[in-house]
Amino acid sequence: MKKITTLLLITIYHLSVFAQDTTFHDKGKLFVNLYPGVYYNFTKTEHNAGFVMNTALFGYKRKLTKNISGIIIFDVTRTTNNIHVKDSTGKELDVSYFEGSKYTAFLKMAQIKWQFHKKISLSVGQLLNTQYLTFQDKYWAHRYVAVTSQEMYRFGNPADFGMRLNWKPNNKWSVYAGVFNGEGPFRHQDEHSDFLVSANIEYKPVEMLIFKLYVSNQENYSSDTLNDKNIIAGFIGFDQKKYRIGAEYSYVQNGDFYNTDYMLTSIFAYYNLSEKYQLFGRYDYVDKSKYLENNSYYIAGVQYTPASGFNIALNYRYFSTGENNMLFLNFGLKF
Predict the structure, then answer these.
(1) Quick count: other Cβ atoms within 10 Å of Cβ 94?
(2) Which residues of the chain have pLDDT under 70?
(3) pLDDT the model gives residue 24
(4) How far, in Å, CA of 289 to CA of 238, rounded?
(5) CA distance linking residue 254 with residue 252, whole number of Å
(6) How far apart are alpha carbons 227 and 242 in whole angstroms?
(7) Domain-wise residue ranges, the chain
(8) What is the pLDDT of residues 244-300, one digit of tens each?
(9) What are the C-alpha distances in Å from 227 to residues 106, 182, 187, 256?
(10) 331: helix, coil or strand?
């Protein structure tokens, strides 16, 4: 018993020494993302044209020591989306509800990160999803134009309350393992406490190439007629100074905890013509999602960067569902 107690005390001491750094000073940083735009739909609809604000967020991050940091982000979006209610057989039921504002401020991220070992860190709070938001979103690099495919078609929550371990044994591998409520950023844990367990692996064999695999499972005990929800998403990216290409495939088994599977394929690329001009494009194919089936989505545009942190993109988009032909002018400002 004495040996165990001594070992625990030594471990706690070394962890505390690793976490402390009285000479470290960080005033923190306030940051803002503004993504407004305007569109015109050549296919005549009720809303033929208009101005939009895709993102308006602000956040603050600070390091207490070299190994302990925190970050908080508030965003603006519609926090109440379309509500679909089904009976025990999976049949849609008619419901009425208050939609809520399309521009409600909400907590997007609130993370405490502790690098308690040289190669291992712990994050706790409301964390961004490693399914697509922590990596593919940055790799796509055009969020001010459109969110990534999995976020657009709601193949998973953008963030959730929970905790996650990150193990980075070397510069080639990153491994993430997390446990979350599974309800997303707008809801409390359900009455059955059915956690979502996830794992994410990123492998970079050479500087220009990256492979990524995400898997998750969420059990459901609320009804004998419901099933566990499973997600698997694979991504591969190739990056050169002049151009970048990314491709991913996502599969959601029992998307609504019923026998409904969702499938999605997305390919995107961009090419730098110069320091200020860039061509970019994307193609999504949704085999099935919550709201779409057999839908193709195209984006093609040109980006102009008049200053660092400020982008303007003129882009054309086509949705096969409804045959919508749309022209967008998007602006992105980050500081």
Answers:
(1) 5
(2) 1-23, 45-46, 80-92, 94-100, 190-193, 221-225
(3) 76
(4) 27
(5) 6
(6) 46
(7) 23-334
(8) 999 999 999 998 787 789 999 999 999 999 999 999 999 999 998 878 889 999 999
(9) 30, 15, 20, 9
(10) strand
The two three-digit tokens of residue 215, written as one number: 């898997």
Neighbours of 12 (CB within 10 A): 10
- What does the alpha-carbon distance between residue 219 and residue 221 come to, in Å, rounded to a whole number? 7
Q: Which helix (H) or strand (E) holds 30?
A: strand 29-41
Cα 183 to Cα 126: distance, rounded to the nearest angstrom: 11
Residue (of 169, 171, 164) closest to 200 by Cα position: 164
User: Please, are residues 217 and 207 in contact by the beta-carbon 8 Å criterion?
Assistant: no
What CATH architecture is 23-334?
Answer: Beta Barrel (2.40)
H or E, element range at 265: strand 262-272
Contact 86, 93 (CB under 8 A): yes
Cα distances (angstroms) measured from residue 305 to each of 103, 138, 259, 333: 27, 17, 46, 10
